[in-house]
Amino acid sequence: MSESEPSATIEQQSTASSVKGSSAPKRLHTVQEAAAKLNLSPSWLYERTRKNAMPFRRFGKYIRFTDDDLEAIIASGAKSLTTVIERGA
Q: Where are the alpha helices (DSSP H) in 27-87?
């Protein structure tokens, strides 16, 4: 065995893991963590999840948000500049 063979094995393993899916698990945020990141109250998030008005994950009685969920919530609340100009705000 040469010294280059173990590094080839490591490269193959990292390639195989990237083929299977994402290399890092997605972070799940609690309602309190999501509220702090979004600068909103937890009760507002709970209300919206009861109405299915935003993306979230439910694990039994637990509600969690991925980073993608938080980005979608932010994007849904963003106003375009033309909308603001049209309203005169």
A: 31-38, 42-50, 67-77, 81-87
Candidate ranges 11-15, 26-30, 84-88; pick with highest mean pLDDT: 26-30
Q: From 25, 85, 44, 84, select the one nearest 73 (Cα to Cα).
A: 44
Please report the domains of the chain, with CATH numbers, ordered by start residue.
Answer: 26-87 (1.10.1660)
Residue 71 DSSP SS3: helix
- Give the pLDDT confidence of 29-74 residue by residue, as tens digits: 999 999 999 999 999 999 999 999 999 999 999 999 999 999 999 9
Stated pTM of the model: 0.62
Residue 55 has φ and ψ, to the nearest 5°, of -75, 135
Cα distances (angstroms) measured from residue 52 to each of 1, 46, 80: 58, 10, 24
